[in-house]
Amino acid sequence: MTTLRHERISVGVDGRAGGWAALAWALHEAALLQAELHVVHCGVSDDIVAAGLKQATTIAPEVAIVSERSDKSASSALLEAAGHSSMAVVGPPATQHQLSQLLARSTALHVAMRSPSTVVIAHQPTSRPGAPVVIGWVDADRASAVLDTGFREAALRARPLVVLTVKNTPQRAVRDKMECDFISLEIEPWKRKYPEVEVLVNVLHGRAFRVLGQSSTSAEMVVLGERRRHDYLGLHSVSILPRLVQSTGCPLMIVHDGTSVSRGRPAAATIRRAP
Fold this sequence. Notes:
Layout: E1 8-13, H1 17-33, E2 36-41, H2 46-59, E3 65-69, H3 74-82, E4 87-90, H4 98-114, E5 118-121, E6 133-136, H5 144-157, E7 161-167, H6 173-186, H7 188-193, E8 199-205, H8 208-216, E9 221-225, H9 241-247, E10 252-255
């Protein structure tokens, strides 16, 4: 069985509930990808972390886990680890205490915007059977990394895939159909690479953060692409990223341009699916 893209996944644990949720999500992802899990902990005792890792090894004994204590801030420690990883996982903002929420939101947003690798904000995934992985489509020239990741995640989890474009324009049935047909042609190489993945292409209208937020409540995961320009995300501008980090109803994966398995058209893959 072939080792997949993410040879190392880094996750931050800082004693808040969101950090443990991030660890649980990262552990599951590492098991699927046959990856090493690097746990960076800040502001929490070694004994508590050791107990959590002991439970993790019971749940997924096949995952190699490396633990590291850091005296830096949570965001600085995880960003440093992300430089040596293919994926960084951070917990979602808290909802019950305002100060805790602000700190977690700041950490998640800071890591998402500055990480050199793919970032996951580990919101609680939906429990709905068959929930799809949703890709936020940007444009054909910048879609390779996002498509690589989104198709792979759907295949790993045996979930359908929705490729979604959001237009802040009035709905036009003919124009929307043309857009869907164009995207369907662009993603054909990935459909051939992952023939087992059921794919739906859709165009929705409205404010991007609202449409994506609503779509996320019934999704397994939302996968977005990133542009390192003055605007942060291609289709999704920097102004909506804080709202998505705060309110996405499922794990939010932000794919950076340099973290794709391959560039251009995809090659065949070996996939280890969830049991």
